[in-house]
Amino acid sequence: MNTISTQYPTLQMGAQGAAVKTLQQLLNQRVSRDYMVSVDGIFGAKTESAVKAFQYSKLLRKDGIVGPKTWQALQTNMPPAMPVIRRSSKGEAVAIAQVLLKEAGIYKGVVDSNFGPQTEVAVRAFQTAQSLIVDGVIGNKTWAAFSGLAAYLAFD
């Protein structure tokens, strides 16, 4: 069992208390100055905005809800392990890659969670730009480069 997920409750807009103060303290250690929040124990709009920016920077679903994956990333300051994805892959990891590629101006297709030919072309272009092995497959090194891009986009 994950001790982080059992130690901290799921938090979202409107939550109050000590766990929110802990969240706010961790956010202030992890986000840029523009996203720093008051440590007041109240999960308001500014805290939600900081959570979303942090989630984006760590390749998490940007929903503003602090669940086990967000708590883990806040504790470790690392994105979660991501799967290797390639052409014909489907799911949330593909959507995350498509969003990042789109926001970087590389992907012109629809964010549809399907790793098709347009996504592969965009991944290859990204890998070329990052001086990675150009294979069209998103593995650890490409995810690491995506994480750097996400942090830049979230906090710049």
TL;DR?
The protein has seven helices and no strands.
Tell me what the structure shows.
With 156 residues, the chain is mainly α. The chain has 2 domains: 3-76, PGBD-like superfamily/PGBD (Muramoyl-pentapeptide Carboxypeptidase, domain 1, Orthogonal Bundle); 92-155, Muramoyl-pentapeptide Carboxypeptidase, domain 1, CATH 1.10.101. It contains 7 helices and no strands. The chain has helices spanning 3-7, 18-30, 45-57, 68-76, 92-103, 117-129, 140-155. The chain is elongated. The mean pLDDT is 93.
Attribute tags:
156 residues; mainly alpha; Muramoyl-pentapeptide Carboxypeptidase, domain 1; 2 domains; 7 helices
